[in-house]
Design brief:
Blueprint: E1 3-8, E2 38-39, E3 44-47, H1 50-60, E4 66-70, H2 77-101, E5 103-109, E6 121-124, E7 134-135, E8 152-155, E9 165-171, E10 175-189, E11 198-205, E12 216-222, E13 233-254, E14 260-271, H3 275-296
Parallel strand pairs: 1-3, 1-4
Antiparallel strand pairs: 2-3, 5-14, 6-9, 7-8, 8-14, 9-13, 10-13, 10-14, 11-12, 11-13
Helix pairs in contact: 1-2, 2-3
């Protein structure tokens, strides 16, 4: 783990922070502008203002797994006030990184049995309705992982007899998300001349509303000017989502233009903020508020 010690305030070279410094700091191009405040002998970043601190930590987050706050040997009241105020800013800047570092996997679906997916919902709004999402067909292509047929598939028969408009939904279980969330899956289709598959990936907050609640479009595959991948292709995104909600895969289009798509390895990992981090953040913000009140008085 790389660690950098952040010293708050204008600290003369040769003075030490009251914390053991981490490994030598090697700034990337994004943080090169901070070199003039970096004390290589101490392994620490020095900031002379709150604005510089806030900007510096946002950049330094890209470089380090941990950022430690340290006080200077000076113990004057003004310096301590500066430390507490800047510490609150530092913790606020660091919080997203710490939350993303820890996470819990709340969904990992490999589609071993599409007919019996725990918590999933299959909705066929096709006109006229035909076949729902079904078990993968190894005669067309095999799965991305697991058993050869362990993937979900949909095709033009989503509309009865392959005639009409396909509108076929595969919806995840209700999930409880707590901030930064990684959502990923694999998809592929059978490339046949004259046909063009189309898949939408959507999000809906809450637990109700049917398919009309999925009004947030996250991604599309296929369609004009966007060829659908013929080999299993991973898609992933980091989303900032709080509370309950569901993801949905919508296979849609005219039945006479669609062919066959597959979906595999759907995973959702959501952040688990570390209690100690937010306790420190609350303490820093509380101290800052207290000092502002005293100054006002």
């Amino acid at each position: 783990m790389q660690t950098v010690v952040v010293c708050i305030g204008t600290i003369p070279r040769g003075h030490k922070c009251l914390a053991r410094p981490g490994p030598p700091y090697r700034p990337s191009p994004q943080t090169a502008e901070l070199q003039h405040t970096f004390n290589k002998d101490q392994g620490s970043l020095l900031f002379s203002s709150y604005d510089e601190l806030n900007h510096g930590l946002v950049s330094a987050r890209r470089e380090f797994d941990a950022i430690l706050l340290a006080s200077h040997e000076s113990s004057s009241m003004n310096t301590l006030k500066s430390y507490a105020a800047a510490g609150a800013l530092a913790l606020a800047a660091l919080a997203p990184r710490a939350a993303s570092a820890a996470g819990v996997e709340i969904l990992d679906e490999g589609f071993d049995n599409v007919a019996s997916l725990p918590g999933w919902t299959l909705v066929n709004n096709s006109v006229p309705p035909g076949t729902n999402w079904f078990q993968g067909n190894t005669g067309i292509f095999g799965s991305q992982s697991g058993a050869p047929d362990a993937y979900a598939a949909a095709n033009y028969l989503g509309a009865a007899n392959g005639q009409g408009v396909v509108d076929n939904w595969l919806i995840t279980p209700l999930l409880t998300l707590s901030g930064l969330t990684s959502f990923s899956f694999y998809t592929a289709h059978e490339a046949t001349p004259g046909f063009s598959d189309f898949l939408e990936v959507r999000w809906a907050a809450g637990s109700g509303g049917g398919t009309t609640a999925f009004n947030t479009l996250l991604a599309t595959f296929g369609g004009v000017g966007s060829p659908y991948p013929t080999d299993w292709t991973a898609w992933s995104s980091n989303l900032n989502l709080q509370g309950e909600g569901r993801f949905a895969f919508r296979y849609v289009g005219s039945a006479d233009s669609l062919n066959y798509v597959g979906l595999d390895t759907v995973r959702v990992v959501t952040a688990v903020p570390e209690p100690s981090l937010y306790a420190m953040l609350a303490f820093g913000l509380g101290a800052l508020t207290f000092m502002r009140r005293r100054q006002a008085n």
